[in-house]
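My main concern about presentation is that the manuscript never shows what a single data entry looks like. Each protein is reduced to its one-letter sequence and a matching series of backbone shape codes. For the editor and my fellow referees, an illustration may be useful. For illustration, here is how one protein appears when written out as sequence plus structure tokens:
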Amino acid sequence: MKKLLASVALTLVLTGCSLGEVNDSIDYVIDAKNHINQLKEYAEGAPDRYKEATKDPAAKEKLANELKSLKDDINAFNNIDAPTIAEDLHQNIVSKNEQILAEINGLFDNGQLTLDKVQDSQLIQTIRNTSEFMNKLENLNQ
């Protein structure tokens, strides 16, 4: 991670970017990686949580709350201002996030989580597809 930050900073300095732009770019890379890692962690644990939710109403409620929280986190990320150097990448991540949000919204009927829809959902696969952005973030300035 330190090498990545150093290379981003060096590249931006050498290309004439201001220190503020360098800091914004570094902050963006960190925020975007954290966002993608959060999605990845959700996807890794989701199958077990889905199974538990079919057996336990409290687990179903917890899953519904996790999905709502995930939506809030995605919306927060979508609304950050990306630095100029990352605008295209940010838009690609936002587009994928919009797909994830649509899939999450499709899991609810009248505000209630529908477990049948959860089982048939492509949500986990869509989230896993966000990992493609990690390499792009690491190579942002190379």
Notes: The chain is about 75% helix and 5% strand.
